Queue: 3 jobs
Job 1
Amino acid sequence: MSSAHFVRGPAYGLSAEVKSKLAQKYDPLREQELRAWIETMTGRRIGDNFMEGLKDGVILCELINKLQPGSVRKMNESTQNWHKLENIGNFITAISRYGVKAHDIFEANDLFENANHTQVQSTLLALASQAKTKGNQVNVGVKYAEKQQRRFEPEKLREGRNIIGLQMGTNKGASQSGMTAPGTKRQIFEPALGMEHCDTLHVSLQMGSNKGASQQGMTVYGLPRQVYDPKYCLNPGDEQLYELYNSA
């Protein structure tokens, strides 16, 4: 099987745009740091082209074996493409067991077919961070925070149920003292200002005005109400005048 079967053609349209954006995120400074770390750990020289030097998977397998001996038991130094892909697959499986998260791990084609070098770089940075967290001397990556698990006695947990947390808010000492029952009349004034004898029978202009309107003449709810204007309509008792008006 020739290498031509594993090489993709040029990308066009949206694929070319996505590939260009991924390439822009690649950090050359991080590449130098990773190169120095990997070459120090494995004792091998990667070469001028960083990704091409890692494409056969041999250096990657040696790297994880230095971090955790016995992670990859068999390394293929053959020039056959399937042997190179097998090495990359063994490396991916080994770093997953080592503790690198699945979303940080690249796929084999990202390296072998030059599909996403940015993701390969992110995986190596995540591996360096995991190695630093485990106590290895690594000058690249960050050290992950260790899990701090706390255990409380059952008595402490029961006491906490009786305390209202600040996240639930506070009423700052407010209460419903002095509140009247729903539906009853309530006078709103401030006793401290001497308003005990304030006039509550008149409606202030600030509360609006009904302009003299009233409910005088209104019928009780549910009773029929005759609506007519005496100027244009005769009263119900003026039947004789109505007959005279029609006979004229």
Job 2
Amino acid sequence: MSSTRATKSGFAAEAQAKTNAKYDQDHAVQCLEWIGRKTGEPVNTCGDPENFHEQLKNGYLLAKLANAIQPGSVKIMGNKPPTMAFKQMELIGQFAEFCKKMGLDNELFQTVDLYESQNLSSVVTCITALGRKLGELGPKESKGQKREWTEEQMKAGQNIIGLQMGTNKGANQSGMNIGKYTSYCRLSPF
């Protein structure tokens, strides 16, 4: 966790603990190994959250990964990782934009999720989704299954009221005094 943020407490601490519990070290190892293979860069593949954060925080490996997949997609200045915070966050943001262009709208992460180690599980999910999109990491992407319905089946479905819509059995307005003048509402003459 970054030292520039105040320590969370109460509900915020509970929410952060739930988020941290979603982090999967095995998937993180797979992501780091895949990044190393794709980029040709040396990567410490230890899956603990601290190492995962340290390896990717500056955005350099993510930018190299994007460029390995699609050359020139993320602009990197020089051959070394950036040291200035805004440059690091810029690279992370460019990687996220690259992922969005690759069609990963539902698996994206925010820059702060990685840079300040707020939600590393979302970073793992995004990288896994990118690898899955390329057929190189994680389970294969589903192709979907086309369904054919007969006209008779379509008509039969129109008469069914789903449980999500609820029911109005037993509901009425008996006992409601909307707009009715009652004795306990009279103003006192005093």
Job 3
Amino acid sequence: MNIFRLLGDLSHLAAILILLWKMWASRSVSGISARSQILYFIVFVTRYLDLFTTFISAYNSLMKLFFLSSTAFTIYLMLVKFRPTYERDSDSFRIEFLLLPTACLALIANHNFDTTEILWTFSIYLEAVAIFPQLYMLQKTGSAETITAHYLFALGIYRALYIFNWVLRYYQEDFFDPIATLAGIVQTILYADFFYVYFTRVVSARKNMELPI
């Protein structure tokens, strides 16, 4: 594992912990898209089917368990424990517009036409666009709490670091996965506008509780 992969994983870990802390501390899920979280859960379930059949390392297994359990817990907090604070009307992006195209693409463009590989490929394509409902919700409401912005920033950094990971692996190991690489680039591009807002409104300065989108 190279440094970019490790830092990417830690950024992903930080993003989820930031989100959970925000919800638990405020006792509210306001501004968070349950639809994006459901998509991420589908991503992890379809990607980690080998969790109990193939052992790679303790680190690998623990990270997979964390991503699955933490995302399931996030959905529980949103739809059960803190349900009255969930902004259902604002979280209205139709996820079938993401699920169906990515499923079809996985059937067409994959490494091997078998169930496990197709599901893994589907998870890669779906992860690239799973943030859409959250970004759509932010655009619809017009603002985001600063802590929510930190969560999205950490997610974006995670994907950007993985691009450097793939570049390094190509030069060091002569390894190139076009599916994962292109999907990661698409996902990072989706964050571009948000990164601009983050740096200009949060980091540069405005120390208020709301981040205009």
